[in-house]
Specification:
The protein is mostly helical and 143 residues long. The chain has helices spanning 5-12, 16-25, 42-48, 52-59, 62-127, 136-141, and strands spanning 30-32, 38-40.
Amino acid sequence: MKYSLSEAAKATGKNKTTIQRAIKNGKISAVKGDSGSYEIDPAELHRVFPPVAAQRDAQHPQSNDAQQDKFAAKNSELTRVLELEKELAVAHERASGLEAQKDQMADTISDLRKRLDSSEGRVTALLADDRPKPSLLSRLFSR
């Protein structure tokens, strides 16, 4: 199907006079119909002037919005991954701190058990003291 001059202008987003000037300058080949209007082959027209949709896509691609959405989603995912990595690092630090605290408490318990065992021996020795005790009178007069 061939374009008329006004259809060609709509298809390219150009003015009718721009299309007509291109025909007269020989940039676009067109045939005049029986009614005197131009009949322009779409392939010939779009060889010189890209279609409106192609111009719009070249200037503002529709996929640009989709790409921005993808980038935003990936950026959001990367941000979340970084946050999770930070949380994991904090958890590891806390776990290592708790592990050190546990080791310190185990050492303290071991030390206290050793002290208790040595104290028990001394208390037992004191309680089992078999030395003869001086009588009250001997203690009073021995001074």
